[in-house]
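just leaving the lab so this will be short. below you get a single protein, a line of residues and a line of whole numbers that encode the local backbone shape. id like you to explain what the token line says about the fold, in plain words if possible. thanks a lot i owe you, the record is right below:

…
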Amino acid sequence: MDGLRPASTPGRFPCSSRRSCSGGRWTTWLRPRSSRRHGKPCWPPCLTGYSSRAEEHPHPGNVTLWPSRVVDTRMQMATTRERFTDEQNQRALGLVLGAAVGDALGAPFEFGAPGDYRRRFPTPVLGGRGEMIGGGSFGWAPGEFTDDTQMAIALGEALLQHGGYDPDTVWAWFRAWCDTANDVGNQTRWALRHADWRDVPRDTESSAGNGALMRAFPLALAFLDADDDLARDVVLHQAGLTHPDPAAGWGAWLAVAMMRQALRGQDPFDNLEALVDSVPEAQRKDFASVLLSGWTPNDPAPSNGSVWGCLAQAVWAVRSTASFESAIVAAIQLGNDTDTVACVAGALAGARYSVQGIPSRWATYVHGALDAPDGRLVYRMDHLQQFARRLLGGTDRSETPPESPAGPQEVAPWLHAADLLGANDAPTDWAIVSLCRTRDRFANHDIRRQVYLIDESEPERNIGLASAVRDAVDAVDALLAEGRNVIVHCHGGRSRTGLVLKAWAMRTYGYSEREAHSWLADQWYRYADYNDAFVEFLDSDWPSPARP
């Protein structure tokens, strides 16, 4: 949720610090579109045209020279999935799903005290529906994401509809969402009362909240392959639509820049000092003090309802932990604006650890809805993954036709193997552990898990294989311990089903990989071990009697 505090530099014209040389001379500053309407330069600047002649800046203390060029954001949005690697695709899914998961998990603790999460959940809840409890100040359903993810989806869908960034399209989506949203930040609601974004007063007083930051993560995907200048300009402009204080935009850009690095498989914090140095001097000190100084949440800082406090806490949570789960818990533990801090941390951690690093007990249940200009849209786990793929320039993968039903077949007490259609016929009080896309087939099963696994031998197809297998086996053990019948299945019931059931048997019975292979081959006729990467993983990296 968008929190507010007075801007540190009210009334300053928020220009970029960049200038460029063209044809042997410095070219002109960017004339904001709204200056033609109101007779004075104001925020946000126009992205669709730059003046070709030098003009006197009305605020010489903030003068900035911009390159003479025309920007068409559609030219640099991701346009084809083949331009990106499998690793980037998995990190992209992690970014979107991670943001929604962090948002939904933090929502019940919003406005609460530090430490509330661990007081409610002293240890991880691996069984049942996990820690997705819902509730909070706005009565969220278990797993429901809030205004943070709703606004981000509205921004991303506007990009996809227009084929690039267009503020009029974005504004239409924002206003359609705001009309029926039950949680809208004060600054955002005030701005969206105006029918035209050009009519929003550009007073920076109290507009450095975290609302522009929380919704920015889709831009990391849509402009992953764009040049840094364009990506930054888009982030700053979308921020200025509702949050005139330049700090709100620069905080959003710092977050998006770190996410872009993580999406490329780089440490998101390696270049942080240079990123902060690129922030205009008027805003640089505030960000440097909480991002570059060894800052911890015990040190003084603005509230996490502000852009500085929110970004600082999200970065600290990801930087000081070693997994997606620990990063999100650390973020929520800080209290107050827990959903927004966890949303930003979730996007960053999801890109860092990929979709396979997100616990299935959280990802399976995440969902939400928003009103769009043409009607209401509903998003669940599969829809969020499709949204991420489209932002990255791809299309939804076609579904392989299901095979004839196989199973459920009991392979150990209360534990069953099946393929997709075999599992589909199971009683609804049975727990389902899915290792393939299910298209909401198991929505009527209250207890279920969906784990992301790709049945390919190349290591880059499963960059978080160990995390995914551990998550699935932990789920099986926890659900069996609750006295449930548990089905493990993939599309055909062969390779991925075999991987998880063998991993479970190795940990439960102390088998080697070959012993687990013989055990499962005797129990389940669909089992196959043609995936060499899975066999190698179990033989070399999964716990066994020789590798506790």
About this structure: The chain has two domains: 74-391, 409-540. The CA atoms of residues 144 and 368 lie 5 Å apart.
